[in-house]
Design a protein that fits this description.
With 153 residues, the protein is of the alpha+beta class. It has one domain (5-151): 3-Layer(bba) Sandwich (Pyruvoyl-Dependent Histidine Decarboxylase, Chain B). Helix content is 20%, strand content 45%. The strands form two sheets. It has a five-stranded mixed beta sheet with strand order 2-5-9-1-4. The chain has a four-stranded antiparallel beta sheet with strand order 3-7-6-8, with helices on one face. The longest helix is centred in the last third of the chain and has 19 residues, at 103-121. The chain is flat and about 50 Å long.
Amino acid sequence: MIPKEFFVTSGEAISPISQLNAFDRALKNAGIEQCNLVPVSSILPPTCKEREWKKIPAGSITHTVIARLDGKGETMIAAGIAWAWERNMKYGLVAEANGHMDKKTLEETLEWKIKEMAKTREIEIDKISYRTEVLRVPIENYGCVIAALVYVP
C-alpha cells in the first residue's frame, strides 16, 4: 500500500477528568477523533501529494506519523512535526519531536532531527515545513498536544 495523499493537522486540549479525555479532545480539535490511528515511520512516498484536511470515515484504519505529549497541571507541553522533500522529489522525510519547551525550541529540535535524517540518507532536502502545538496546562487539569501527518485512506 502506497499512500497517494496526506494532510497535516494538530490539536491541543485540556480536561479536568483524565489524560485520556485530554487526548480525545486534542484528536477532536485536530479533526481525526473518528480514526483508528496506526503510527508509521517517517518516509513520504514520491507520488504522495499534500492536500487540505479531509474528513475520514469513522472507524477507518488511518496511518499517521504522530507526535504527542501529555502533561498535568502547571506544565508547558509541546509536540510537532516537520516534513521536507528530497530535492529531486524522490521521496520525503517526516520528523517528530515533543517535550517541555517553547515553540522556537521545538522548531529548532525538529530542524535538527530532519537535517540529521537527510544526512544519514546522504540526500539534500528542500524547504522544511512545520506544524506545532504548545500548551501551558492549567493547575488541576490534564493536557495533551498532538501534531500529525495523516495519510488519507
